[in-house]
Design goal:
Layout (H helix, E strand, L loop, with lengths): L1 E3 L12 H13 L12 E6 L2 E7 L8 H9 L7 E4 L13 H8 L3 E4 L11 H7 L3 E4 L3 H7 L1 H9 L3 E9 L17 H11 L4 E5 H7 L21 E5 L20 E6 L4 H9 L3 E5 L8 H10 L4 E6 L1 H9 L5 E7 L25 E10 L2 E9 L5
Helix pairs in contact: 3-4
Length: 387
């Protein structure tokens, strides 16, 4: 377990190759949330110890990170080193193969953090080596895999990477007994949540959360805090098999930036589905068990749409439905130093729950970090260690 004090932590970067790759990783983070179904990639070109070209992935159809870095470097790329956070593609898609640009530019050596698992896009490392370019794989691999964990999971399984996020009091309540929840955490923690929204492809909430809180589910960040091109508004996904969400809900506002999708079932009242669609809201009708939206089928559909990372923001029944099926990959729990009490005050996970602590789900790679007076516990769900 790692404990980080303060809102940010810094560490001295080593000289040389690792420092260059970390700069490429910094560039890749600027593209998070803006590249799906593609990965977020960063690249830099280094000549005689100086960075002469930089780039990060543009939205689908735009140039890849490597191409932008090579363009900026120009003739200085010949004989230079290129650092890239993911294996360059070797196939034609919306853009030409990146390896062709490497070979044309005359790059001497390439450092790759992570091989591309996509069977369509892979083969770039082999093409470069066949072309006489030296290739080293694995520099800063752990950080690079974590940065693109959504893309890597979707390519491997067809499902988006799922992050469960919630805020609770020190005694485990996400609202008071009356349902009041604004605000549990302070401004610094809430700003960090909006940074996370800025980097994901979709946000999932249940119809109960819409009814109780009437959220907009948009990304609200001060100037200078968003990634490339300003704030990114992920796809808003409302689970509503019973047809509770009405047109007055703010999440359905047509003037909101971004888009809203309502996931329902074949048992949802057809009239309500027509009302949603008539109001310009997209619907996804799934074959479910009555009016309960099947969450695995939902994730399969979102994966087919190319969403790499999905954030679940509640409520308790929604969160538990994903956890019970082994579909939550990562948990980010914000804990405020407040006490709410109340036998009927809700906790972050509803559902049936477990019988004994031996059955509890554990987290691994846990990092605890402070935001103002609040703490965030961040870790990966270790289903193999359960029970």
């Amino acid at each position: 377990m790692t404990i980080q004090h303060g809102a940010t932590t810094t560490a001295a970067l080593p000289d040389g190759q690792e420092a260059y790759m970390r700069e490429a990783l910094f560039l890749a983070r600027l593209a998070l949330g803006r590249t799906a179904p593609n990965p977020a990639v960063g690249a830099i070109v280094v000549r005689d110890g100086s960075v002469v070209g930089r780039g990060h992935t543009q939205p689908p159809g735009g140039p890849h990170a490597e191409v932008l870095a090579l363009r900026e470097a120009g003739e200085l790329a010949r004989g230079a080193s290129l650092y890239v956070t993911l294996e360059p593609c070797a196939h034609w898609g919306r853009t030409p193969p990146c390896v062709d640009a490497f070979l044309t530019a005359g790059v001497r050596e390439v450092f790759v953090a992570v091989p591309d698992p996509n069977p369509i896009a892979g083969g770039g490392i082999g093409r470069l080596r066949d072309g006489g370019v030296g290739v080293r794989v694995g520099l800063c691999e752990h950080e690079a895999r974590q940065l693109n964990e959504g893309f890597l999971k979707r390519v491997a399984t067809g499902l988006p990477f799922v992050i469960a996020k919630y805020a609770m009091t020190l005694d485990g309540r996400i609202a008071t007994r009356t349902g009041h929840s604004r605000w549990i955490t302070g401004e610094e923690a809430r700003l960090e949540v909006h940074r996370l929204r800025d980097q994901v492809d979709g946000i999932v909430v249940g119809a109960g959360t819409i009814a109780a809180d009437d959220p907009e589910l948009t990304t609200r960040l001060p100037d200078g805090h968003a990634g490339a091109g300003g704030p990114h508004h992920p796809l808003r996904i409302v689970l509503d098999g019973s047809g509770r969400t009405r047109g007055a809900a703010r999440v359905l506002g047509l003037k909101l930036p971004g888009r809203t999708l309502i996931a329902c079932t074949t048992a949802t009242p057809p009239g309500q589905v027509r009302d949603w669609e008539g109001a310009g809201v997209e619907t996804l009708v799934l074959q479910g068990d009555g009016m309960r939206v099947p969450v695995r089928a939902l994730l399969e559909a979102l994966g087919e749409r190319g969403l790499n990372t999905v954030l679940i923001e509640g409520g308790g029944e929604t969160l538990y439905s994903f956890l019970a099926e082994g579909l939550i990959d990562r948990v980010q729990a914000y804990i405020a130093p407040k006490l709410a009490g109340g036998r009927e005050a809700p906790g972050p996970f509803g559902g049936e729950g477990i019988r004994t602590m031996d059955e509890a789900w554990s987290l691994r790679e846990v990092v605890i970090r402070g935001f103002g007076s609040d703490l965030r516990v961040d870790g990966y769900v270790d289903y193999d260690a359960t029970g």
